[in-house]
Structure formats: structure tokens, C-alpha cells
Amino acid sequence: MLRNRATLGEYQKKRKPNGKETPVGEPVPNYYPAVIDEDLFRAAQEARVENLACGRGRKGNDIANLFVGIANCFYCEKPLRFHSNGNAKSLVCSAVLETQGCHRFRWTYRDFELSFLAVAKQHGLPRLQEAIASLERANETDAYAHRIELMLALRKNVSGLTVAMAGTSPPPNDIPAPIGRDHPRRFVEVKFFGGAQQTGFPLPPPAPERVKQLNPVQLIQAFTISARIELACGVGDLSGIDRRHR
């Protein structure tokens, strides 16, 4: 109820493809009698956000998961959890971790965050865009404060965030099966307050760096390689090379 804009009198038409509620069109203002005003609604959101982001105290030197409390599974609508297994940090449906069903796929957290922020930078509200830009400019010392700022901005600007870990039609996945990671058809749907729903996809991987081709003769000269290794390198006529390099 604290997040439901029907308390302001808005009506949002929805449909249920595959049993999942999806908003249709823009919300209709003043459809119901409003029980609170806009200022009180926003104050409630700010109080909720500050409690979610800061109420449990600082943990470590970073905010590992910016999407606590706002990201849900596309298939079962359960909350997503931040799952860390050594260096492998991912978002995964809570139903999967609790072995209650759902599709056993996860999304590498760093890839998810960058993919989401790419959508928010283009379609988000100005305050959210400013918070993203501030984080990108921040140095390592100030990163924590800027991630807190971005976390608060997300909760004040995002009205819905669902993640499809394996596309709209995921393959069958038995409960005992390992949890797959970074399915190629994964995507995220985000709805901003006062804005239309947007869909984001994984960012393309960076282009591999070109490998510089090294000249065997230059290697021999630089590292004073022996004649035996010269033959192994397939170097032909070495008569022009100073003997001390041979």
C-alpha cells in the first residue's frame, strides 16, 4: 500500500499474460477519490527508501547491490537476491535459492548493473540521470556516498523492475539442475514514475584487444636467446645479428 499510487486516485489498467500482471498504457489520474496528497505520498517513499538503504548500517566499503527491495522475478514475481559465491556475484530469484521452483538462471551482478544503468541514463528521470553521472565521475574514496545517492534515486524514480533471467520463454530446468548464468536471451523491464515502461538487454561484450605480432629476430636480440632456441623459433638467416646475441 505504501507504494501503490491508487492512494493518490490513479488507476492503472493491467493485463495478465501467462498469469503475470503487466501495466497497459498510462495511468489515469483522479480515477478514484484520493486518500492522501502527492506531498505525503512522496514523503512516505523517501522514508521507506532511507530505511531500506541506510537503516541496517554500513556494511563494507561498497553498496554491493543497488536493487534491494525493488527487483523482482519476471516469471514468479518473487524478489531477486544478491548471491555471492566467492568472486561470482549474481542476482537470482529467491524461489530458486529456496528450492521452491522457478527457472534456475542468474545474471552476473556487474553486467546487470551496467545494463540497467544504460537504460536509466537514456530514459530515466533527470534526478536519476544526475545520480548516475555523479557516480561515474566519482573517485574510489567517494564511491560509497555516490552509490547510496544512486540507491535512493532508484527507489524514488523506479515504480517497477522485473528481470527475465532466460527470456520470455525459458527452457525447462529441473530443480536439481545447476543454476545457469547469463542466458543470452535475458532482459530487464523497468517502469519509471511518470514514464513509460522500457526494456533493457545485456550490453555487448567489449571487443578483444588485438594481439601484437612479435618478430622472432627482435626477440632474440632483446633477450639474447641461444642458438638452440633460435632454431626452435624457426629463424632462418641470422648472419646479420651480432654474435653476442646468437
Fold blueprint:
Blueprint: E1 14-15, E2 22-23, H1 38-54, E3 71-73, E4 80-85, E5 88-93, H2 94-97, E6 105-108, H3 109-123, H4 126-137, H5 143-157, E7 158-164, E8 180-181, E9 187-192, E10 197-200, H6 216-223, H7 227-233
Parallel strand pairs: 3-7, 6-8
Antiparallel strand pairs: 1-2, 4-5, 5-6, 7-9, 9-10
Helix pairs in contact: 1-5, 3-4, 4-5
Summarize this entry quickly.
The protein has 246 residues and is α+β, with helices and mostly antiparallel strands. 32% of the residues lie in helices and 17% in strands. Among the domains are: 61-200, no CATH class; 216-245, no CATH class.
Salient structural properties:
246 residues, alpha+beta, four-stranded mixed β-sheet, 10 strands
Strand elements, count: 10
Assembly type? single chain
The portion of residues forming beta strands comes to 15-25%
Distance between the termini: 81 Å
The Rg value, from CA coordinates, equals 26 Å
Strand-and-helix sequence, N→C?
EEHEEEHEHHHEEEEHH
- Which structural class do you get from the secondary structure elements? alpha+beta
Unreliable residue stretches: none
| Portion in helices | 25-40%
Overall geometric form: globular
Mean pLDDT score: 81
- List the total number of helices: 7
> The biggest beta sheet, please?
4 strands, mixed
The strand line-up of the biggest sheet is: 3-7-9-10
